[in-house]
Write a structure and sequence with these properties.
With about 240 residues, the protein is mainly alpha-helical. It has two domains: about 150 residues, Ribonuclease III domain (Ribonuclease iii, N-terminal Endonuclease Domain, Chain A), CATH 1.10.1520; about 80 residues, Double Stranded RNA Binding Domain. Helix content is about 65%, strand content about 10%. The protein has a three-stranded antiparallel sheet, with helices on one face. The longest helix is centred in the last third of the chain and has 30 residues.
Length: about 240
């Protein structure tokens, strides 16, 4: 239990039921390599934590931004709970250091894989909710998402990337972007999709998300950044000639 005390200190959380914390930190690859272990993997807690995150985030945004319509709230919530964002939250609390995972998974870079980091973060949310209730987990979630939500709103980074990419692509390349699902991974309750944004027959950006829609938005954002760079580079010689 001294090891768990170190984990709790690192995460800034204290659990009454330490078995919940252990389960939240146990990736299925550890169980696969240690079939006699008394531990359970964290996928059921991940399922619960995903739902808790969605609810708490939606409620917070509903009250915090009364001027936003349903579409804007949905877009902002998606930006806050997408795989990359949750993986970043997990990294900021050094969650990767505490995950129990199989040696093969670890050697293949599992500790820095966004899907694993995101899943473990969601499992931790689910475990803390079961351990201490809704009020405690709301306090934890809101203190994490509050500054990020404000940053997104101020910088308007939650705008519909697909719409902006279409406008830019049609205006400068005279083509309409298309999207293709490259892969689907994970169990049914926690799938991870990889989607490609294609401009003029070429892959301009890849995005990963817990739904095809979220992955497509991430792919569009990546494509936007590349297209913006290309347009800028094309404009530089013109400016020099003038």
């Amino acid at each position: 239990m001294s090891e768990l005390a170190t984990v709790e200190a690192g995460l800034g959380l204290t659990f009454r039921d330490k078995t919940l914390l252990l389960r939240a930190l146990t990736h299925r690859s550890y169980i696969n390599e240690n079939p006699n272990s008394p531990l359970e993997d964290n996928e059921r807690l991940e399922f619960l934590g995903d739902a808790v995150l969605d609810f708490v985030t939606a409620e917070y945004l509903y009250h915090r931004f009364p001027e936003m319509d349903e579409g804007q709230l949905t877009s902002l919530r998606s930006a806050l709970v997408r795989t990359e964002t949750l993986a970043r939250f997990a990294s900021e609390m050094d969650l990767d250091q505490f995950i129990y995972m199989g040696r093969g998974e670890e050697e293949s870079g599992g500790r820095t894989r966004p899907a694993i980091m995101c899943g473990c973060y969601e499992a931790l949310i689910g475990a803390f909710y079961l351990d201490q209730g809704l009020d405690a987990i709301k306090t934890f979630i809101i203190q994490v998402i509050k500054p990020v939500a404000q940053h997104i709103v101020q910088n308007e980074t939650n705008k519909d990337a697909k719409s902006r990419l279409q406008e830019l692509s049609q205006g400068h390349r005279q083509v309409t972007p298309t999207y293709r699902t490259i892969s689907e991974q994970g169990p049914d309750h926690s799938k991870e999709f990889t989607v490609a944004a294609i401009v003029g027959g070429e892959i301009y950006g890849l995005g990963v998300g817990r739904s095809k829609q979220v992955a497509a938005q991430a792919a569009a954002q990546a494509a936007l950044e590349r297209l913006d760079r290309e347009i800028l580079e094309e404009a530089i010689p013109d400016a020099e000639e003038e």
